[in-house]
Specification:
The complex is a heterodimer of chains A (about 240) and B (about 220). With about 240 residues, chain A is α/β, with parallel strands linked by helices. In chain A, about 30% of the residues lie in helices and about 30% in strands. Classes of the chains: A alpha/beta (about 240), B mainly alpha (about 220).
Chain lengths: ~240, ~220
Amino acid sequence: MSLLEVEHVTKRYRRGRLERVAIRDVSLEITPGELVAVWGARFSGRSTLLRIAAGIESPEEGSVRFEGRDLRRARDSVLGRGIGFCQMCFSAGQGGLVVEQVAAGLLARRCSPKEARRRGQEMLARVGAVDCARLECHELGGAELARVVIASALITAPSLLVIDEPTNGVDVLERDPLLALLRSIASEGTAVLMSTGDAQGLSGVDRAFTLDGGELQDEMRSEHSAVVPLRRAQAGARRR
Amino acid sequence: MAVAGEQVLEEGGADRASSAVLRSQVACAVLGLVIEKPSHGYEIGQRFERRFGGFLSVGRSSIYAALGSLMDAELIEKLSSHSSTGARRGAKAGASYRATACGARAYRAWLAERVRNDPQRVEMLGRMMLAGVHSVEAALDFVARYERECIREAQELSRPALAAGAGRGGVPGIVERLLIEERRRMIDAQLAWITYARAELRAERASSPGTGERR
């Protein structure tokens, strides 16, 4: 059964009398445990597609269903629970320690602060960022930030993780280990939908969709989903 | 991406006969020339010499053998004797050939796969495209196939067999990683070109209605 079904979705943006079609008649499905990439150049509509798939935005035409439920109606109960959307930044108002940020999703669900903090620490260890737990958010480097936002999204145990350009702003030598993390998350059962604008982001994905001018061009299915990172994560890489 | 009026081949070029024929570069070049213009065998031989003489040096018998193979694979067909298409005054007597829809499609698929990695790719790309891809729709189809080849290679760069060597320590491991990274960056450049080519072709289609494929 499909986890996510995007069917004939069209999204337009209007500014005054000007109208731009961001995505047009796009359909795709994601099943549990898949790692799926949407490849496209800038302004191809890839970020719009991901926001719609995550329920952040609503399409003007077509429908998005998550676990059989229409996202337009079930958005509040799904976003942050069934679907984890990774914002690749923390807002200026979000101060505090990294572990507190990661645990925030649990506090909102009436988890005790002590338990939320413990599970936040565990999740940071899972994504390879346990060394960042006691840092302030603004102290994080590119790869650390990516790992921390992934931890923040995973803390509520979603069945779908949506992440827009995970390697954006990440040092070139840190990208493969980050992609390997996403591969491992999918392999453990949490589907991952990501966007990418470069060939590296396609490493190890189960399926790749190409998007151009807001229209899906093609779908490539890989026979080899188990990614072996070209460059492995360095243990204790953070030196402070 | 289906092109109007063409028979859709199964994914991956399921037609084994055409795949076998298109392993011959001569056959591919001949097919491109037939797509460009239906012709008699003798005329194809003359055009082959002019177009590909610097790349492929073959005798006329090889041209006729290629025509036979392409016929057997149903990538080209003989024109009826009453048809005037391709029958040029002064051309030597004999059968005149034209490409089938399947042949045109198979040619672009071969071209997309071939140009990605050929050391003479720029020259080949130009000559082959001029020969066998001569409509905006056909060019867009070629671009889509080229993109598919690039994406597939990018996915496969992470295959365990390829990455195992790069996982080794020391200089050999670094060298292998660097070579894989070189391929990735080449693919990025190719994908950027594909984005550009699509924009150009779509602009051309918008400004010149009726530039679709003839068949």
